[in-house]
Batch of 2 targets.
Target 1
Amino acid sequence: MQKDRSIPFTAIPFFGIHLACLLVFLPSIREATTTTTIVLAIACFLIRKFGITGGYHRYFSHRTYKTSRFFQFVLAFLGGAAAQKGALWWAAHHRHHHKHSDQDEDVHSPARDGIWWSHVGWVLSPMYNRTRYEMIKDMTKFPELVFLNNWHLVPIFVLGGICYLIDGWAGVVWGTFVSTVFLYHTTFAINSFCHMLGRRRFPTTDDSKNSLILALLTLGEGWHNNHHYYQNSVNQGFYWWQIDITYYVLRVLSWTGVVWELRMPPERVLALGRNPARLSEMMEQLKTSAAHATDRTREAALAAAHAASETATAAAHVATETAAKVASAVMPNPEPTP
Ligand SMILES: [Zn+2]
Ligand SMILES: [Zn+2]
């Protein structure tokens, strides 16, 4: 589908919140900034990041564990406070991404549409404002989730109010503006950089990569190649050394009974990931089949172009004949000049 790359007026709040971060240099804010302010900003980042990773991604998008209706709402609210639209909007688009990863239909593929588009362009585009409810039917039966999805700005205003009550305007600037911008770009980096930079352990048909740095910045989401290979697992770091803080939090929550039935990757997937010889063999097979597919696509395109040109020639021939017949019917031979 052709993508509309213009930046609409509705993107003003997004750029506005970036500009608002400069308020940290305002003398009155600088004077009011204390250790409490910085702790508040870090807490606002971490709690909302978990709302995105543990909630929007691992629960609403992939259903990798179970929880109560109440905690499900809490997750939707925490993720909503990150100002990345509603849980249903986010999860539906994410499911679509997995279905078409790095193909033409993919909403945010850096290989197809470039880094700017995959990082942020698609989020701002009015083309994707609509929630793809057809992709998230399992969650639309909860009216409170649909309500929050429609009123997705409520949580960020609530957060702004809490920050103000705790630490005044310095709390709002650091806890709401600055930490939200960090949330944006660390989350968006999974869609952009994690399909460009890093290592590929598993042979997937997309460009997904694993990145320790992004895993640290996103509470474990940087093991994106693992995740694209096996999406149904609550942990995205598959091995002990793949740090995955979201998973550790969910594991602790499972001990308290807040969440349960955490789905783990099967042993065959873990064993494959530890078998470099088999992995490189599979990677080669994937490249060969991709090259064949490209050849077949090229041949199909040539055949289609050839067929189209033949059809056009035949149509032109028919049109010429018809025009000649019409002309001779409308304009009979002129009388010979006496
Ligand atoms: Zn996913
Ligand atoms: Zn991806």
Target 2
Amino acid sequence: MDGESTKRIRDENREQHGRKKRRSDCGEKMKARNEKRKLQEKPLVTGCIRFYVKSEDDKVSVYNKMDKIKLCMAEKVSSVTNEQVLNAVFDFYLQLNGLVDDANDERNFNFQPYLPCDKKSTDEDMFLTTYSAMRNICSGIQHHNQTCTELLDVKKLQRFGHTAKVTFTCKDNHLVTADSSQHLPGGLFLANLRMIHSVYATGVRYSQYKRICDSANIGIVPESAFESHHNLYCSMTEDLAKESIKDAINEEVTAEVLKAEENDVPFYGINIMTDARHGWRRNAAQSDVVAIGQTHHRVVGLAVVTRQDDPVSQRHEIRGVENLYQHFDENDTSINIHGHDRNASVNKYLAVHQPQLVRRSDAKYNFAAFSYLDKLLP
Ligand SMILES: [Zn+2]
């Protein structure tokens, strides 16, 4: 083959591979590069894997797959040798099918299904995570492992309140970033909002919540976040509470009407039990007076009495009971039996204003229900 036709074939090849001819592809520069290549250390052993296919297309298909894998491993096909790609593919397949000797497999080096805790790791940062987020992290790692055989390790762990943004990286500097909790519309972390909900719903004060979180080392949501959600949370829970109370009253009425029909007696109304609890033990600023139905033990009425309503906290229960009867009137609900603890003013109020009532002022009236009420009002 003469020099001219070799050059033509080379140019055609270049055209096919989309590589432009550069100035360094001829003259002194090319000669210098070829000299350098000659000096490079040649491999001592050559291996040959021969494969047989039915058509030229099948052969090209194998080569194309090989190039694709090389491009996954590096930016250029030419920077990965055939030996490197074969080893990577073989290792990946063997690993995938559990055919690697564990002792020689560094990929298994730090996985332990039962992870013991040493003294040093007791102070590690903790964060909340969810089922969906764990699955997402698994997907991210699996996606990386499909294209890279290097091991992933935690590079960075940034905490946002109770959640964390975790960044994994491998020796090839691939990055996999995932959050420990999913986001709600608007971008807030579910786990953080759930904790805000738990603080509001249990009546724990911010300082107490902070102490718990500090001791447990589970991160903390700043007070400003609580303040920004306060109004929305209050209006929504108020609506839900009203709905729940309405449902509970309907349930009690239905149960009592059925009972009256069964026993062939007139329906006088529902049976309730009430009790009051002060918001704080000392110098009560507010009291919750709660009425629960006798049959289903669900809250059928709630009255909150504050110091502004009555400065004397001992009078809060009777004020609450008055408000409750107003609430039952507004809901067209009549009361038949009212059980409560020994509170003289409540007794007096019921005797004067609700003479139709059967009054039970002893705890034996319905011990189970009262103990339930006790649990409801800590
Ligand atoms: Zn990687």
